[in-house]
Structures are given as C-alpha cells and as structure tokens.
Design a protein that fits this description.
The protein is of the alpha+beta class. The protein has four domains: about 5-65, no CATH class; about 75-155, Phosphorylase Kinase, domain 1; about 160-385, Transferase(Phosphotransferase) domain 1 (Transferase(Phosphotransferase), domain 1, Orthogonal Bundle), CATH 1.10.510.10; about 385-525, no CATH class. The chain has 30 helices and eleven strands. A hairpin with a 3-residue loop joins strand 2 and strand 3 (about 90-95). Helix 20 (about 490-505) runs antiparallel to helix 21 (about 510-525) and helix 25 packs antiparallel against helix 26. It is elongated and about 100 Å long.
Amino acid sequence: MSEPLASHELARLERLFERAVELPRGEQAAFVAAECGSNEALRRELWSLLEAHGSEDRLGAIVRQAPSRTGTRIGPYLLLERIGEGGMGEVYAAERQGPIARRVALKIIKPGMDSRQVIARFEVERQALARMAHPNIAQVFDGGTTESGSPYFVMELVDGEPIHEHCDRHALSTRERLELFLEVCKGVQHAHQKGIIHRDLKPSNLLVTQQDGRALPKVIDFGVARATNGDLTERTLQTIVGQIVGTLDYMSPEQADPSSVEIDTRSDVYSLGVVLYELLTGLLPFERLEAGGTPLSELQRARREQDPPTPSMRLRRQTGTAMRVAPLHGTDERSLLRQLQGDLDWICIKALEKDPERRYATVDALALDIQRHLDGEPVTAAPPGAGYRLRKFVRRNKAAVITATAVAVALVVGLVSAVVALGEKARADTASRAADRSVASAEVTSEFVRTILMSADPWNEDGKQEKTVLEAMDDAIRDIAAGRFRDYPEIESSLQNTIALILLNRGRMEEAEAMLAQALDTRRKLFHGDRYEVVQSLLNLSLVRSYRYGVAESEARIVQAVEMSERLFPRDHPSLIWPLSCLATQWSKSGRGAEAEPLAVRVLELATRHYGGDHSEVAQYIARLARVRNFLGRTAEAREGFDESIAMMRRLTPSGSAWLADVLWISAEARLANGDAAGALPELEEAVAMAAIHLAAMSPDLARYEETLVQCRVKLVE
C-alpha cells in the first residue's frame, strides 16, 4: 500500500477534487491523468475521492454489479439478507451460529472498495462504535476480517423505522415527538462525550424500535463519523480531505464548506435542528436540494447562505402541507401552528444558526431548552434580533435599501388614500356619482403615488441619487400644502393623518401637530355628525399633544372621541378598544385609577373576544391593565400581569417589536415606582435596544425609554 500524501499536497488534492467532481464522467479520466502526471500517490487518492463520491467510473460499475453475499458465512455469522447499503459498505441481517444464537447486523466493505481511504473510514466507524455504550446507540458486539482480508464488524440489529415515519404512523402529538427527540439527543450527546461527531444525522439514521413495550430511538450509521481527539482525527483528515461527507439537506453550513476544517460537535447540533424542524412540520427548513445538473459547489453555497424561516412560518406558507400534517400530530391546523409559535420556533432557529457561535454549544443545551419548553419554563433560546438580520440584509443589498424604504412609505400613503377615496365617498353620494368620483380619486391617487415612487427611483430622468424616506415624505407634504388634493378633501385628510404619524415617530412633533389639526378640521367639515374618521383624528391629535405638553392637554379630546365612538358602535364592538384604552391610560396617569380600572378590564375583554386569547394586541392590554393596578397599589397582582404580558409578547413576536419594547418599558416603569431599580434595569436596557431597531432615532418613545433608563441608573448609584 502506497504512502499517504505529504501534508503540503493535501490542499492540491482538495482543489483537484473540486474541479474533477463537476466534470462529465467521460472527461474525468483525462483530467486526472493530465493533472496528476507521474504522481501515483496523488492519482490514487484523487480516484479514491471520486469513487467514494459516487462517480460513474469503472470501479463504481464493478461495485454496483457485485453479487449479494446473502447465504454466505463470515466467521461464525450466516448472512441472511442485505438490509442496507452505503457508499463504502453493505449491511446484512445475520445470525450467529453456535450454542447461543443471536440475530445481528453485520457491516462489511463492498467488493472492490478496498482502497486505503475506504478501509481507513471503515476502521474509523468500527472504533467509534466500539467506544460507545448507550441505549440510544446501536451497540457493537464483534469485529474481524474475512479470509480475503476485508474488515467487518457486528452490531445490534435495529428492527425499526425512521423517526419521522414512526411519529407520523402513530400520530404522535407534538409533545410526544419532542420526548422521543430528547432520547435521540441523549444518544448523540453520549457520542460527543466519547469524542465522536456523527456528521450524518438524519431520520433514516435515527431508527425507532420497540423495547419492553415502549418506543426507543437508536442512532445508527457512524460511517462518516469524525473523532474530536486522538488518532481518529488524524486518519479522518488525511483520508477525506476535500470530500463532502453527509447529506446536504441535513448538513451544517460549515460541513458544506469544502475549505472548512472547523467541524465540531455543533455541526451535529445543526443536523439535529433540521431533524427537529422536520418532525414538527413535515417539512425541511429549506426546499430539498437536488443535484441534477447543478454543480456541487452551487449546492454547497446554497446550504451555507440560505436562511430558514421559523417552523410556524414555513408551515403557514404551505397551507396544503399544514392541513395534511396537523392530523398526523393528532390536532388541527390552527392548534399546530399555535404549538409551534414562540418557544419551538426559537429553539429550531437557534439550532439552525449559520454561525456556530450563535448555535447551541452542545446537544445537551438543545435538549435542556426543549425540556424547559415541555415543563412550561422560559427557554434560553432567543430569536435572531432584527438588528442582526437587518445588518445581514444591508450587507447583501446596500443599493436597494434606501429605495425600498422610500417605496414602502409611498405605498402606505397611497394605499390609505385609495381606500378612503374608493370607499367612503361611495356611501356619501349616489351610485352613479360615486362611480365617477371613485374613478377620479383613484386617478389622482395613482398619479401622486407614481410621482413619489419616481422621486425615489435611481434611474429617474435627472439622474439624481435615491431619496431618503424624509425627502420623499417632504415632497408629499409640499404637494398637499400646494393644494394638490384641494378637490379631494377625503384623500387630503387621510394623507395628512398618515404623514403626521410618520413625522411624530421621527421627532418632528410641531409639524405633526399642525398636520393633524388640519386633518381634524377637514374631517369635521367634510363629515357631518359622528364619524370614525373624526374619532381617529381626535385620538391622534391627543397623542401628539400629550407628548408635547403633558397628559392634561389630551383628556378633553380623548373623552370626546370615546363619547362619539360609543354613539357610533354597539357596546361590544372592537372599534371601541382604541378610544377606551386611551381614556384608561389617561385617567390612570391623572390619578384616577379607580375609574380607569373598569375601563381597562373592559378593553381587555373586548380585545380577547375580538383577537382571541393568544394575540399581541391582547398582550398589550394585559400590560396596560397591570399598569392601572400598579397605580392603585396592587403591586403583586400588577406584576403577574406584566410577566404574563411580556412572556406572551416574546412568544408572539419572536423577532422583537416596538410593542414588546413598550411593554418592557411599562413593566420597568412600574418596578421603578415600586423601588426596584435593579429589576427595572435589564428590562429598560432591552427596551431601548429593541426600540433603537424598530423606531426612528428621533422617536419620542425611544427618547422616553432612554430617559427612564438614565433615571434608573441614577437610582442604582444613589
């Protein structure tokens, strides 16, 4: 047997393999001959890699045509039937002959696959399995070599089915699937403790068998395992350099990178994350990778760069799959989505992090988080923050960011205008006049939106750079002030209302107040009597005036809005939620907590009835009721409400949100009022960090959170 390649030749071997594997079958021989020349060791190793990868060469054909060994004997074992086949070996169900009969699985190298590389890999698997003894790992009993010198080993015969097929066939609930998966984690963690990385974890290598009347998963096939220490590592590195081992659909990004040598136990964590995702949804995190005519390097790149959606989002997008999968969990589609939202979304996404440093550090850490979820305890997994994801997006799409933002603002403005124009005037005029009016309004709105969009187009006629959000919005303000919509007051007031709120979020409160006052005046003249548009303007104007002048300046308009709403709608109508909530907040801040509490209770009841019990809107109103109760001195009851609201919001908005920041701030404000600055600090720091992502730099809410954070830090050093 020839000597192994020198270390300086391994990099060359890797480069040649990458090029050769993408060539048509008929061109590979000429390529190997031309590139390797008289270097016989390099030629041999390159052919070994191509053979193990599955190329259609002469040796591969010999292997495929090799007859079955069924009915023959190897040592004391009679081979009964071939039950499995991999790139280098065959697995047979066998029976040990002698006084103690035992059915086993015997793995042996395929005929013709006796290259140094394959024998070394086979020996790696045998050593790896021999190190381990765990109920969730197929046990090794024996080993040896045949008369012809081919190595084999004998292991436990696992009479089972892939874990996802078992779960579906028995319609296991989400909880039961998680409990079964936890046993898989125990087996893999044991392997890691013995210094073995599996590197090919997938459902077909996770078989579920029956033992003592219960389902028991077993990890099998350590054929591409890699040791984390000792001689196994050196041998593995020298025999498979540059080769892709494992299954792309379940492979970690670093394992899919042929240049990477930084493969550790976190690679198995990633693969387990894919298995968990599939158990929960019936889907892979990504569309299945098919080689076909796609170069291997492109498939590898896709695996390294694609970002997965959360399980609930993936399933929600696949309506047909959701309807099919839910009964396999013993539930309905809506219930399954609710089960996945929050903890399980976060756990899967953390296990599937591209960056190993952001992934679970160990399989044990993954298992512990799953157990926390099952026990109803908070999980440690946190979603990738919006800031992190935004930075990744900006790095990939710098040129499109400014344009896309301006387009989004213009579309919001145009949409609000068009809805008002086409809806409300149709009710105010006769049918024929409404039709004419709607067409004209739509044309005016369309032209306005087109103008704003063109102003943000980098390919516009004057060649100017893209406009920022504020520049595009300033164009809209000037158009409105110039009387662009003088003949369409319904559009004008809607635009004023929308743009004013954007101005408010950007700290331009004086302009926002002026525009909202104009919108309120326009709507009062346009609509006679009680109208919800007037309620909307009253509440928005009261909001901006409370920011500028304090709570006392807001109450009259809020009371007027509530009275008008109660005349417009039945007592249980959801349109009452916003105005009643504004009044409850107003009264609680004004020291009228006893009057505010029944209002806050009524708001929560309305929101729960309208949105359902598990909704971010409901979480907000739980926090607002808790704040009222805190003002009343019922601090323990209030704290329960705050904690419930925050937990619900975290579960429902896994990427964070401005509303979660607000709930955290409300909770922290109550802690400060109760003298708990130490408890308030982490909530305020998180609220400020989250608001900095979701709100504009000059937002009055962000300024309020930052001011409270400063006050908290001052209290801590006093």
